[in-house]
Amino acid sequence: MTRSILTLILILFTIVFAKAQTAMTNVDARNSTCLNGKWQTIIDPTGVGNWREVWKEKVPEKKTDFYEYSFEGGPVLEVPGDFNSQIKEITYLEGTVWYKKTFTYTRDSSKRLFIHFGAVNYLADIYLNGEHLGQHEGGFTPFQFELTHKVLEGENRLIVKADNSRKSDGLPGLGFDWFNYGGITRDVNLVETNATYIDDYSIQLKKGSNNQVLGWVKLNGKKPQQQIEINIPELNVKYKTQSNAKGIGVITFKGKFDHWSPENPKRYEVIIKCETDALKDTIGFRTIKVQGPTVVLNGKSIFLKSINIHEENPLKGARAFSKDDAKLLLTWAKELGCNMVRLAHYPHNEYMVKMAEKMGLMVWSEIPVYQHIEFSTPGVEDKMDLMMREMIKRDKNRCGVVIWSLSNETYSSTANRDLALSNLTKKCRALDSTRLITHVINTQGYANNTFNVWDTLYRYSDIISINEYVGWYEPWQGKPVDTKWDLIYPDKPVFISEFGGEALYGSNYGPKDEAAYWSEEYQEQIYKDQIEMFKTVPNLVGVCPWLLVDYRSLGRMHPIYQKGYNRKGLLSEKGEKKKAWFVMKNYYDKVSSDE
Questions:
Q1: End residue of a domain, out of 194, 227, 250
Q2: Which single residue of 88, 218, 441, 520 has CA 20 to 30 Å from 393?
């Protein structure tokens, strides 16, 4: 066996087995150096960069030496940001782009250093000064690597291989109905900590209590046993506890909380201290539960007036990543009359979750277990588990997050689906018992104007979440107001998590009552009929149109009406209000006045 083959095997072994660390909580509160901005890149559509070992950045030493790659003179991309929308020639690339950033660092023996990525889509390999730090799979959750004993005094070279190729055993899999934006799509930060630091914490109300916090703080480092203190100055709360040999300190205290709600999004400054570290967070406190056939927030039943949102800035045709992007989308949701947003079909940027909470919007957060996932393929369950844990670790202190969604439109006929998702649900409840959990299903039968809602996954869900597109993908089989329902669990709350139809803003190409012309009037009638049908739904606790705004999707190929966009938005990609927008807003305004 030649030396070159042995070297390649070692490289592949390292790539397979070196994994990223789950990111520390609340990176915004840390001592950080932002690495956002301009990064040098190499576009690698055929994937030869591994073979050429571009991370080593070899330079010619002899007159006969040459190398067929270079970051110098290549494209420069903005980070965060997807690569597809920044370079026209790679708009539709699903493959590899290599990124390079140099930074300087002054070493301090008393400090630890981490590189933190908000997200890289989909498969990320990280290199520092020619050394492979490891790999992270998953395009929508944060991860980190420790650099403490690897960083050099002075200049350092950071290289990221970002590969958004679809994977049959990926999450999502090969087929999904949104644009596959690739690259370093969220913030990158160098984070400096003390030798022992606060890695994670959970500070929320105990399940079933409206005034008692039950949580914990977890330290990371060689001094795990320390005194821990939680301060909430506005409430005069000062609680002390001690962490154990594993660095975990249990916290439990009471407070006279002004509960967070959409009408009163109250939050408090919370200070978390140990002997070697201190952090600040802004945390709200609320209770959420299912009580019989209703959803109850802070002891009162609530109707969930929601909207589906993809993580795309439609005005730019690019992945949404900034505070301004979040403000644009969430302001539209508030204008519609929403009190909740479903962030489909993956965890959105942390800015989105924090801003929604600040604006009084409840959040439905979801992992990309979408449609044809290979549940029986070795490793897939581990990927689901990791993505769920990364989502929960980042956002568990956000009181605005009220629902964890663990799957969307999966099929009982898929091998191992029920077992894999029931196991995932149990793990989720063990991690966080204070929020609602759901699985979204679209396999209900519809015949004789009757819905047969039967999927076994509803056994594990707190609410029955239904995607149905009657009036678009299926014609009405009777009057909407005469619709009947046969629920497998008749005592559980029911949530219509998707409904709607497509319309091109301003479409006037043909008859308004025929679906084939994508008219606003046709979409408008779907919404009117759906609202009539809502009156028949037993235990209805909320609805969620698909969706807020038209978004890019390569599967939408009609050259006149779609042009690469899913046109089910209530708004066009330019922010123009379709007729259905006003139908939905009127419905939400009326629901509000009826409560």
A1: 194
A2: 441
Q: Burial, 563: exposed, middle or buried (Cβ in 10 Å; 0-12, 13-18, 19+)?
A: middle
Cis bond before residue 538 (omega within 30° of 0): no
**Across the chain, which distance is largest between two alpha carbons, in Å?**
83
Are 454 and 479 within one domain? yes
Q: How far apart, in Å, are the Cα atoms of 218 and each of 251, 277, 393, 435?
A: 11, 12, 12, 21
Q: Which helix (H) or strand (E) holds 592?
A: helix 579-594
- Mark whether 478 and 414 lie in a shared domain: yes
- Residue linked to tokens 């999904």: 176
Question: Of 235, 252, 285, which marks where a domain is finished?
Answer: 285
Shared-domain flag, residues 20 and 106: yes
400 and 255 in a common domain: no
For residues 426-452, average pLDDT: 97
Q: Would you say 500 and 580 are in contact if contact means Cβ atoms under 8 Å apart?
A: yes
pLDDT one-digit tens code per residue, 490-526 = 999 999 999 999 999 999 888 999 999 999 999 999 9
Taking residue 187's Cβ as centre, other Cβ atoms within 10 Å add up to 23
pLDDT value of residue 509: 83
- Residue-level pLDDT at 510: 86
- pLDDT per position as a tens digit, 183-235: 999 999 999 999 999 999 999 999 999 999 999 999 999 999 999 999 999 99
The answer as to whether 538 is a domain residue is yes
Instruction: Please give the average per-residue pLDDT across 367-382, as a whole number.
Output: 97
CA distances from 428 to 425, 464, 544, 564 (A): 5, 17, 23, 36
Residue ranges in 337-416 assigned as alpha helix (H):
350-359, 380-395
Is the sign of the CA dihedral 190, 196, 197, 199 positive or negative? Answer: positive
Position 539 in a domain: yes
Looking at the 3D structure of the chain, how many domains does it have?
3
The DSSP H or E segment spanning 574 is none
CATH number of 553's domain: 3.20.20.80
